[in-house]
């Protein structure tokens, strides 16, 4: 497996995890410590499943590439969560949040390029 494929798997895994976070947010409206309500809160259960599922692509990726190169790409989950929050929760962005996204991308690129030096 090439490094690019491993990075792609990590990014795909972060997208799955971000979908889990979105479902957790939606599940929080009806959340209760009542065991029956937990078992019937499908958003909560699906969100937890997606969080668990998101680790599978990461495991395949770190099998074939350096974790010190791949792990910073986990930070892309912040970007996915923001984009999903804008699209599905109608959350607002401001200049600081956009700057944060820019710096996340910049930092991930620096670490990726640092591998080749």
Task: Summarize the structure in words.
α1 (3-28) runs antiparallel to α3 (42-64) and α1 crosses α5. This protein has helices at 3-28, 35-40, 42-64, 67-70, 76-89, 95-114. It is mostly helical and 117 residues long. 79% of the residues lie in helices and 0% in strands. The protein contains six helices and no strands.
Number of helical elements: 6
Fraction of residues in β-strands: under 5%
Query: Pairing-aware structural class of the strands and helices?
Result: mainly alpha
Coarse morphology: flat
Written as H for each helix and E for each strand, in order along the chain, the element string is: HHHHHH
Name the helicity range: over 70%
In the predicted model, the low-confidence regions spanning at least 5 consecutive residues are none
Brief digest:
The chain has 117 residues and is an all-alpha fold.
Task: Please describe the structure with a list of short key phrases separated by commas or semicolons.
6 helices; 117 residues; mainly alpha
Tell me the layout of helices and strands.
Layout: H1 3-28, H2 35-40, H3 42-64, H4 67-70, H5 76-89, H6 95-114
Helix pairs in contact: 1-3, 1-5
């Amino acid at each position: 497996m090439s490094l690019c494929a491993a990075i792609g798997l990590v990014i795909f895994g972060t997208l799955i995890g971000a979908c889990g976070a979105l479902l957790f947010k939606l599940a929080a409206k009806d959340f209760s410590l009542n065991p029956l309500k937990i078992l019937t809160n499908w958003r909560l259960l699906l969100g937890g499943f997606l969080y668990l599922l998101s680790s599978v692509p990461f495991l395949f990726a770190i099998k074939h590439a350096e974790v010190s190169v791949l792990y910073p790409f986990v930070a892309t989950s912040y970007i996915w969560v923001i984009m999903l929050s804008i699209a599905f929760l109608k959350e607002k962005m401001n200049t600081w949040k956009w700057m944060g996204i820019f710096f996340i991308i910049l930092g991930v690129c620096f670490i990726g390029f640092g591998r080749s030096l």
